[in-house]
Fold Glucuronosyltransferase.
Amino acid sequence: MYLRIIVACLTLVWGCNGARILGLAAFSMRSHWIVMEPLFEELAARGHNVTVFSSFPRKKLLPNYTDIDFSDRLKPIMNEFSIEMLKENVPNPWATTFFFRDVHGDSCKVLDEPEYQDLLKAQDKYDIVITELFGSDCFAYYAYKLKIPMIAVTTSMAMPWAADRFGLPDNPSYILNYFQRFSPNMNFWERIYNTVTLLYGKFWHLWVFSRETQAMVEKSFGESLPPVSEVVANTSMYFINSYHALLQSRPYPPNVIEIGGIHIKKRKPLPKDLQDILDNAKNGAIVMSFGSLVRAATLPKPILMMFMKVFSKLPQTVIFKYEEDLPEAPPNVVIRKWLPQRDLIEHENIIAVIQHGGLSSTIEAVHF
């Protein structure tokens, strides 16, 4: 009897061992890190040992969480995108692919840093790799070298080149690809365009970017390596920052998990000045923010003045994230160079959010 109890207790103890998780979050856009960070934090809170390479070191120590800080070598990207740059790149699928290549390709330059070189000798030190699937797949090679499973995370909707890795249906006759903003009820010509851009994205990634990635990694590792398509085919699971009620409903295999809303943490107290402004907003308040990447200060002057003119006629208070002084702002417009957006939106007096269409901001607005 007692022997059975002892064996059962030992089984429970052995079953509670945490995994040794290696997080490679080298893509230095803050909007992407906002989605990655809570995943690593929760894994550490649940007893796993988490080591994270990123440009966003924690300000407060967290048990089981180790930072490898790259902020001095891979500068965090915040408030650096202009409205004009987005107009030139984002709506254009042909330009967007090269935008991915330039921005995400830069992150692969850290492969030559000593900390990343030391990872190649870290056999039996980690159990799993978690990294971002966006543009370049250079960090997937660490899972290959360390002979451990890999989980991929995309901080937006699923990327076109992810489908073949996970058996993810992407029939362009009814499933919109990443580059399109059509309604799901596409007409014939929209379906044709959706098909062409999907094939273009896959071709570009497989035959251009993947070859460049392989060459870059081989140079850094000093050895010949399998092609990217072979390495990423062993990815065990795929987390995507989407939710079917917001984006198009589509079939997902069991290894593809929607995690939309993971970044919405417990509310923190607002700064006193903002708390007082919202509490006293008798007619409600509106938040206008273009997220952590886009500089609202790059809005063309006529458009900015149009917003100010409209806001001046509203009875609501408007809290506007604007990175410069704005003397033209009417009395009911409060200017702040940075906003705790998630905490603001939850306030009961917020009645609307004006934003740039970012997925995380949209999820927050819908959630609250």
